[in-house]
Amino acid sequence: MTFSCEVDATLNDFSGLAPLFPLPNVVLFPHALLPLQIFESRYRQMTADVLEGERLIAMSLMRPGWERLPSHAVPPVHRMVGLGKVIAHEKLDDGRYYLVLRGLARAKLVGEQVVDLPYRIGKVEVCSDMLSEQPAFNRQSRAEELASLFVRLFPGVNLQQLFLHGVSELPLATVCDVLLGSIPMASELSQQFLDELNVDVRSQMLLELLEQANSRTTNSLHRTFPPDFSAN
User: Fold this and answer.
1) pLDDT tens-place string over residues 103-122
2) The whole model's pTM is what?
3) Which of 29, 63, 112, 148 could be disulfide-bonded to 76 (CB atoms 3.0-4.6 Å)?
4) At what angle do helices 172-180 and 139-153 cross, to 10 degrees?
5) How far is residue 57's CA from residue 147's CA, in Å, rounded to a whole number?
6) Nearest-CA neighbor of 133 among 21, 43, 5?
7) Is the same domain home to 123 and 75?
8) pLDDT in tens, 160-176
Protein backbone atom coordinates (compact mmCIF):
# COMPACT_ATOMS: atom_id res chain seq x y z
CA MET A 1 0.00 0.00 0.00
CA THR A 2 1.18 3.54 -0.73
CA PHE A 3 0.08 6.97 0.44
CA SER A 4 0.48 10.47 -1.00
CA CYS A 5 2.63 13.36 0.16
CA GLU A 6 1.57 17.00 0.14
CA VAL A 7 2.54 19.19 -2.81
CA ASP A 8 4.16 22.61 -2.55
CA ALA A 9 1.74 25.08 -0.93
CA THR A 10 2.64 27.56 -3.67
CA LEU A 11 0.38 25.52 -5.96
CA ASN A 12 -2.73 25.65 -3.78
CA ASP A 13 -4.38 28.16 -6.13
CA PHE A 14 -2.81 26.92 -9.36
CA SER A 15 -5.14 27.34 -12.35
CA GLY A 16 -4.05 24.09 -13.98
CA LEU A 17 -2.77 25.90 -17.07
CA ALA A 18 0.91 26.64 -17.70
CA PRO A 19 3.05 27.55 -20.70
CA LEU A 20 4.90 24.54 -22.07
CA PHE A 21 8.60 25.05 -22.67
CA PRO A 22 9.75 22.03 -24.67
CA LEU A 23 13.50 21.45 -24.82
CA PRO A 24 15.46 18.45 -26.09
CA ASN A 25 17.79 18.06 -23.12
CA VAL A 26 16.34 19.64 -19.97
CA VAL A 27 14.39 17.95 -17.16
CA LEU A 28 13.34 20.02 -14.14
CA PHE A 29 13.06 18.26 -10.79
CA PRO A 30 11.25 19.60 -7.73
CA HIS A 31 13.55 21.71 -5.51
CA ALA A 32 16.11 22.10 -8.31
CA LEU A 33 17.15 25.49 -9.67
CA LEU A 34 17.23 25.85 -13.44
CA PRO A 35 18.89 28.89 -15.06
CA LEU A 36 17.61 29.69 -18.56
CA GLN A 37 18.47 32.16 -21.26
CA ILE A 38 15.43 33.15 -23.34
CA PHE A 39 16.15 34.53 -26.79
CA GLU A 40 13.54 33.18 -29.26
CA SER A 41 10.79 35.74 -29.90
CA ARG A 42 7.95 33.32 -29.04
CA TYR A 43 9.53 32.50 -25.70
CA ARG A 44 10.25 36.15 -25.00
CA GLN A 45 6.50 36.70 -25.25
CA MET A 46 5.92 33.62 -23.11
CA THR A 47 8.25 35.01 -20.45
CA ALA A 48 6.57 38.41 -20.45
CA ASP A 49 3.18 36.72 -20.05
CA VAL A 50 4.47 34.41 -17.33
CA LEU A 51 5.83 37.34 -15.32
CA GLU A 52 2.42 39.02 -15.53
CA GLY A 53 0.63 35.84 -14.50
CA GLU A 54 1.28 32.93 -12.14
CA ARG A 55 5.02 32.92 -12.94
CA LEU A 56 4.86 29.20 -13.66
CA ILE A 57 6.39 27.28 -16.58
CA ALA A 58 6.02 23.58 -17.40
CA MET A 59 9.40 22.31 -18.58
CA SER A 60 8.75 19.44 -20.97
CA LEU A 61 11.29 17.08 -22.51
CA MET A 62 10.89 16.46 -26.23
CA ARG A 63 10.46 12.84 -27.22
CA PRO A 64 13.18 11.13 -29.29
CA GLY A 65 12.84 11.81 -33.01
CA TRP A 66 12.03 15.50 -32.63
CA GLU A 67 15.18 16.39 -34.61
CA ARG A 68 13.76 14.69 -37.72
CA LEU A 69 10.58 16.77 -37.71
CA PRO A 70 10.11 19.74 -40.07
CA SER A 71 10.72 23.13 -38.48
CA HIS A 72 7.01 24.01 -38.44
CA ALA A 73 5.97 20.79 -36.66
CA VAL A 74 4.89 20.70 -33.02
CA PRO A 75 7.33 18.34 -31.29
CA PRO A 76 5.78 15.64 -29.08
CA VAL A 77 6.79 15.79 -25.44
CA HIS A 78 6.78 13.45 -22.48
CA ARG A 79 3.58 13.58 -20.43
CA MET A 80 5.32 14.11 -17.10
CA VAL A 81 6.68 17.65 -16.86
CA GLY A 82 8.54 19.67 -14.26
CA LEU A 83 6.45 22.59 -13.03
CA GLY A 84 8.67 25.49 -12.02
CA LYS A 85 8.25 29.01 -10.75
CA VAL A 86 10.28 32.01 -11.86
CA ILE A 87 12.15 33.17 -8.76
CA ALA A 88 14.57 35.57 -10.49
CA HIS A 89 14.64 37.30 -13.84
CA GLU A 90 16.48 39.96 -15.77
CA LYS A 91 15.48 41.50 -19.10
CA LEU A 92 18.41 42.59 -21.24
CA ASP A 93 18.49 45.61 -23.52
CA ASP A 94 18.18 43.41 -26.63
CA GLY A 95 14.98 41.78 -25.34
CA ARG A 96 16.49 38.55 -24.08
CA TYR A 97 15.76 37.29 -20.58
CA TYR A 98 17.75 35.49 -17.95
CA LEU A 99 15.49 33.39 -15.74
CA VAL A 100 15.93 31.12 -12.77
CA LEU A 101 13.20 28.56 -12.20
CA ARG A 102 12.67 26.69 -8.95
CA GLY A 103 11.12 23.29 -9.44
CA LEU A 104 7.88 22.95 -7.49
CA ALA A 105 6.34 19.64 -8.51
CA ARG A 106 5.92 16.91 -11.04
CA ALA A 107 2.84 17.42 -13.18
CA LYS A 108 1.07 15.31 -15.77
CA LEU A 109 0.27 16.88 -19.12
CA VAL A 110 -3.35 15.91 -19.80
CA GLY A 111 -3.92 18.13 -22.81
CA GLU A 112 -3.16 21.41 -24.49
CA GLN A 113 -5.33 24.49 -24.71
CA VAL A 114 -6.00 25.91 -28.17
CA VAL A 115 -4.78 29.49 -28.00
CA ASP A 116 -3.82 32.26 -30.39
CA LEU A 117 -0.30 32.47 -29.04
CA PRO A 118 3.13 31.64 -30.48
CA TYR A 119 3.79 29.20 -27.64
CA ARG A 120 1.95 26.20 -26.22
CA ILE A 121 -0.30 26.14 -23.14
CA GLY A 122 -0.56 22.86 -21.29
CA LYS A 123 -3.37 21.59 -19.13
CA VAL A 124 -1.56 19.86 -16.29
CA GLU A 125 -2.41 18.00 -13.12
CA VAL A 126 0.01 18.35 -10.22
CA CYS A 127 1.24 14.94 -9.04
CA SER A 128 1.90 14.06 -5.42
CA ASP A 129 4.82 11.91 -4.34
CA MET A 130 3.86 8.43 -3.16
CA LEU A 131 5.37 6.53 -0.24
CA SER A 132 5.14 2.83 0.54
CA GLU A 133 3.34 2.20 3.83
CA GLN A 134 6.01 -0.27 4.96
CA PRO A 135 9.31 0.44 3.19
CA ALA A 136 11.96 -2.26 3.12
CA PHE A 137 14.58 0.19 4.40
CA ASN A 138 15.00 3.14 6.74
CA ARG A 139 14.33 6.28 4.72
CA GLN A 140 16.64 8.49 6.73
CA SER A 141 19.50 6.03 6.39
CA ARG A 142 18.80 5.85 2.66
CA ALA A 143 18.94 9.66 2.36
CA GLU A 144 22.28 9.77 4.18
CA GLU A 145 23.64 6.95 2.02
CA LEU A 146 22.66 8.79 -1.15
CA ALA A 147 24.27 12.00 0.08
CA SER A 148 27.46 10.14 1.03
CA LEU A 149 27.73 8.57 -2.42
CA PHE A 150 27.11 11.92 -4.05
CA VAL A 151 29.92 13.55 -2.06
CA ARG A 152 32.26 10.72 -3.03
CA LEU A 153 31.47 11.18 -6.72
CA PHE A 154 31.44 14.98 -6.61
CA PRO A 155 34.12 15.94 -4.08
CA GLY A 156 34.14 19.54 -5.30
CA VAL A 157 30.49 20.12 -4.43
CA ASN A 158 29.68 21.15 -0.89
CA LEU A 159 26.28 19.73 0.02
CA GLN A 160 25.58 22.95 1.91
CA GLN A 161 25.31 24.52 -1.53
CA LEU A 162 22.46 22.13 -2.30
CA PHE A 163 20.65 21.87 1.03
CA LEU A 164 19.65 24.74 3.28
CA HIS A 165 19.41 22.29 6.16
CA GLY A 166 21.27 19.12 6.95
CA VAL A 167 20.33 15.95 5.10
CA SER A 168 19.07 14.44 8.35
CA GLU A 169 16.33 17.08 8.52
CA LEU A 170 14.99 16.56 5.00
CA PRO A 171 12.47 14.05 3.60
CA LEU A 172 13.87 11.37 1.34
CA ALA A 173 11.89 12.77 -1.60
CA THR A 174 13.62 16.13 -1.26
CA VAL A 175 17.09 14.60 -0.98
CA CYS A 176 16.50 12.45 -4.08
CA ASP A 177 15.22 15.29 -6.24
CA VAL A 178 17.87 17.80 -5.19
CA LEU A 179 20.59 15.29 -6.01
CA LEU A 180 18.91 14.30 -9.27
CA GLY A 181 18.84 17.94 -10.30
CA SER A 182 22.61 18.12 -9.74
CA ILE A 183 23.78 14.94 -11.45
CA PRO A 184 24.57 15.07 -15.18
CA MET A 185 22.88 12.24 -17.01
CA ALA A 186 21.18 11.56 -20.31
CA SER A 187 17.90 13.43 -20.56
CA GLU A 188 15.87 10.27 -21.20
CA LEU A 189 17.29 8.77 -18.00
CA SER A 190 16.41 11.94 -16.11
CA GLN A 191 12.89 11.62 -17.48
CA GLN A 192 12.61 8.12 -16.03
CA PHE A 193 13.33 9.57 -12.60
CA LEU A 194 10.80 12.35 -13.18
CA ASP A 195 8.16 9.79 -14.20
CA GLU A 196 8.57 7.76 -11.00
CA LEU A 197 6.13 9.01 -8.36
CA ASN A 198 6.96 6.42 -5.70
CA VAL A 199 9.73 7.96 -3.59
CA ASP A 200 10.98 4.61 -2.30
CA VAL A 201 11.33 3.24 -5.83
CA ARG A 202 12.94 6.48 -7.00
CA SER A 203 15.49 6.35 -4.19
CA GLN A 204 16.37 2.75 -5.07
CA MET A 205 16.86 3.73 -8.73
CA LEU A 206 19.12 6.58 -7.66
CA LEU A 207 21.07 4.40 -5.23
CA GLU A 208 21.78 1.87 -7.98
CA LEU A 209 22.86 4.63 -10.36
CA LEU A 210 25.28 6.14 -7.84
CA GLU A 211 26.65 2.77 -6.79
CA GLN A 212 27.32 1.85 -10.42
CA ALA A 213 29.05 5.16 -11.04
CA ASN A 214 31.10 4.81 -7.87
CA SER A 215 32.19 1.27 -8.75
CA ARG A 216 33.55 2.44 -12.09
CA THR A 217 35.89 4.83 -10.24
CA THR A 218 35.96 7.19 -13.19
CA ASN A 219 35.30 10.88 -13.64
CA SER A 220 32.39 10.23 -15.96
CA LEU A 221 29.97 12.03 -13.67
CA HIS A 222 32.26 14.96 -12.88
CA ARG A 223 30.68 18.36 -13.32
CA THR A 224 31.06 21.90 -12.10
CA PHE A 225 28.57 23.50 -9.72
CA PRO A 226 26.49 25.55 -10.04
CA PRO A 227 25.45 24.77 -13.64
CA ASP A 228 25.69 27.21 -16.49
CA PHE A 229 22.65 28.87 -18.01
CA SER A 230 20.75 26.62 -20.39
CA ALA A 231 19.91 28.19 -23.76
CA ASN A 232 16.56 27.66 -25.43
Assistant:
1) 999 999 999 999 999 999 99
2) 0.88
3) 63
4) 20
5) 29
6) 5
7) yes
8) 666 655 676 789 999 99
